[in-house]
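tool_call predict_complex ligand=guanosine-5'-monophosphate
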Amino acid sequence: MYEKNGVVLVLSGPSGAGKSSLINEIADDIGDYYFSISTTTRPMREGEEEGVHYHFVSNEEFAKDIEENNFLEYALVHGNYYGTSLKPVREALNKGKLVIFDIDVQGNTAVNNRLGDITTSVFITPPTLSELKKRLLSRSTDSIEVIQKRIKMAKREIQRTSEYDFVIVNDDFEMAADVLKQIAKTARIKIPTDKINEFVQKWEDIEQ
Ligand code: 5GP
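tool_result ok
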């Protein structure tokens, strides 16, 4: 019943919520995982690297990927396209890994529609809107226009937190990291529907 099978952990929340820092913090304690690197048409930010933070592509290349059905899901976020490539995710799942996605609320809906029975979802947020504004401004990697767009988006996204299995308020970093670690460990033992059905079948057989 508890044999190794691939599972998904979706992380969503406004930019500035601390998703990347939290993942880095718990990386050594959650076993074998694969962090999905998305493809995006957004311009590269200072400090970002191709193939590390994202695969940065043109609108034409992105459109080609859509046409060739290369995405598990994709969405338009803050005016740029972001997508999760299917192939590496499928490979990681086949190897029984914990596959982690940092995707928006639209992506969470799409992943749940396709892989709901092996997915655990977490919404991560700063404690308040003013704290989010403060973090985005101090990060200063984006223009004021982009920051305003992100704040508007965050106000919309927060309305959909109830669609997630868990919500983490990233106020106390250590505590937030500890909660995320526990969730990641629990996500690992989520059992896909076909395995449950198989187990029930066998369990009934033993009874006979
Ligand atoms: P950023 O531009 O700050 O890196 O990301 C902006 C938003 O896009 C974040 O909310 C992030 O979770 C989301 N995002 C990143 N990659 C993907 C993806 O592949 N699919 C979807 N649906 N959203 C993504």
